[in-house]
Amino acid sequence: MYFTKSLPFILLALVTHSAWAQEYVPGEVIVKFKKEQQGKANFSSKALNFSMKVKKSWSVLNMHQLQAKVGQENVEQLVKQLQADPNVEYAEPNYIFHKQSVGIESARFDKSQAVQGFSSPVNTSFTTNYYQSDADIQTEEAWADLSASSSVMPVVAVIDTGIDYNHEVFASTGAVWSNPGEIASNGIDDDHNGYIDDVRGWNFVANNNNPMDDEDHGTHVSGIIFGLSQDIFASTLTPAKVKIMPLKFLDNTGSGATSDAVEAIYYAIENGASVINASWGGGSYSAALRDAIIEAYNNRVTFVAAAGNASNNNDSSPTYPANYSIGNLISIAATNDSDTVAGFSNFGKNTVHIASPGVSILSTLPNDSYAYASGTSMAAPLVAGIVALMEREAQTQINGYQAAQILFGQGDANVGNVNGKVNTNSRVNVYKSVHYAKTNTISATQPDEATYTTRGLASDSGGAAGGCGLVKSLSSSSAGGTDNLGRMLLMMIVLSPFAVAFVLKRRRKKEDERRTHHRYNIQSEVRISMGDKELVGSVSSISLGGVKIDTEALLEKGGIVEMNIMSPDGKERVQVLGKVVWSQERKSYGVQFCDMAETQTSSISSWTRKLVRSS
């Protein structure tokens, strides 16, 4: 291409790697109170002790964005004290996220210059007039297969830097979503959704009804989504087959706060978007953001997330929102025209689902211009565009769970070097995915819980009803297969800043003899993900029972912890999810784990055959 274009007993010795290392808005905290506090006029007394100003509230969720008064802006301390309040479900900093583009890499073209710049494709085994990428994703074949009309007009919410809604591509085709319940410029919230004159979306940065792009990123992303439905470089464009809902939460530097992202997601859900594109991310686990995506799941909305551009393995170095284990979320790696995973792209056999072209993608920029850009920011909207076309051809909204099943099943497997880099070992195929949706009856069902076993892979979650779960109960009941996505789940606790020791208390021999599962000696590595911290230690014993811990850390009941346990030979890692509980009988904390998938149980059982049984 033209380049300018119930489980292990473990003994752990742990140290904290990093605490509060992530970016957040100074002096701001997001707090959610427990269900029994919902509807009460006053917040808990401990929360009010700080005289914090309520900047924003999501009353249905019992969630609030608080701002500390001058002189009390120590976010770490505020979070610790709020989290210690028994009325608080979770408290966290208002984390900052960033766009996932490596930048505009070419001069800006007008349409004629852009088309003249095209060169022969890298993959010379096929020809294409789909100018946005030379990867053989069969976009033109999908166009030829599209129905002349559809009863469904999919709406893709682009939660980003905004969009140049006056751009020739969008303005001439009617591509930008229009709020049917709002009358422009009358100063009235006609549809009573809480936003005045939101005729084309919302700007959550400036808190106004003008989501104009002031950074380029959102317009480029939107052009990729729209370019999946027709040739945006054609001399004559056809009326839009999909709509773009511009929701600006990233500012003119490409950065935005969790609180604005959360509000944008709820806006998208409530105003009819069926697909959300998130070409942004960061290293901080936000329970509030996870709550919002689960709400999208419950409303059958597909959430497409960029895997990130740090060349990292997301299995061990998570980025969010891409690493959340939620059934409607599809995490995307970037590949080039030859289906090679881009050097900048994050990857992950367990946590990144599928690959998509994201190198030198030609798309729209503000002021009727065009340019090439690269990033998982460019790979994700291509997938969002595919899902939108799938819905158009199926003539129904396809929930995120089903959209993922189709995309993963209809991708091109083992192309380039994607094998082992993404969970499906596949790169997306536009034609096969859209044609499948067009010619098959798509099930409207999805598991009742947002985190569940799915996708025919090994499960990382599960558990009895009411067991493991911080925001929602996490259940293993599912209509699908299993899912070992290995996603990071938040444990809303605050550790003391010093080293923490987890000590296994030995039971009396008589009690040991009554154990259902024998304990075995093992010398191996374990990593525990707890909020912003990753704790690394060693495993000294293991069984299929459970884990009891003693620690000076502040362990809040109900927290979620994920352990990654290395096999004795170092060749295999098993991920185990559990809930921190307090044993009144033993006067100590422990981890009550969710049910393991069969693959996890089999792995640990295979290890123990070669281990020495503990006394």
Secondary structure: elements and pairs:
Elements: E1 12-16, E2 24-33, H1 45-48, E3 53-58, E4 63-67, H2 75-83, E5 88-99, E6 103-104, H3 111-116, H4 139-145, E7 155-160, H5 168-171, E8 202-203, H6 217-227, E9 243-248, E10 255-257, H7 258-270, E11 275-278, E12 280-281, H8 287-298, E13 302-306, E14 329-335, E15 354-357, E16 361-365, E17 369-374, H9 376-394, H10 400-409, E18 412-413, E19 426-427, H11 430-439, E20 500-502, H12 509-513, E21 520-530, E22 533-542, E23 547-549, E24 560-566, E25 573-583, E26 588-593, H13 598-608
Parallel strand pairs: 7-9, 7-11, 8-9, 11-13, 13-14, 14-15
Antiparallel strand pairs: 1-20, 1-22, 2-4, 2-5, 3-4, 5-10, 5-12, 6-17, 16-17, 18-19, 21-22, 21-24, 23-26, 24-25, 25-26
Plain-language structure description:
With 615 residues, the chain is of the alpha+beta class. It has 13 helices and 26 strands. The strands form five sheets. Strands 20-1-22-21-24-25-26-23 form an eight-stranded antiparallel β-sheet. Strands 8-9-7-11-13-14-15 form a seven-stranded parallel β-sheet, with helices on both faces. Strands 2, 3, 4, 5, 10 and 12 form a six-stranded antiparallel β-sheet that branches. A hairpin with a 6-residue loop joins β24 and β25. The longest helix is centred in the middle third of the chain and has 19 residues, at 376-394. The protein is globular, with a radius of gyration of 25 Å. The chain starts with 11 loop residues before the first strand and ends in a 7-residue tail after the last helix. 56% of the residues are buried. Residues 1-20, 119-127, 452-516, 548-559 and 584-589 have low confidence and may be disordered.
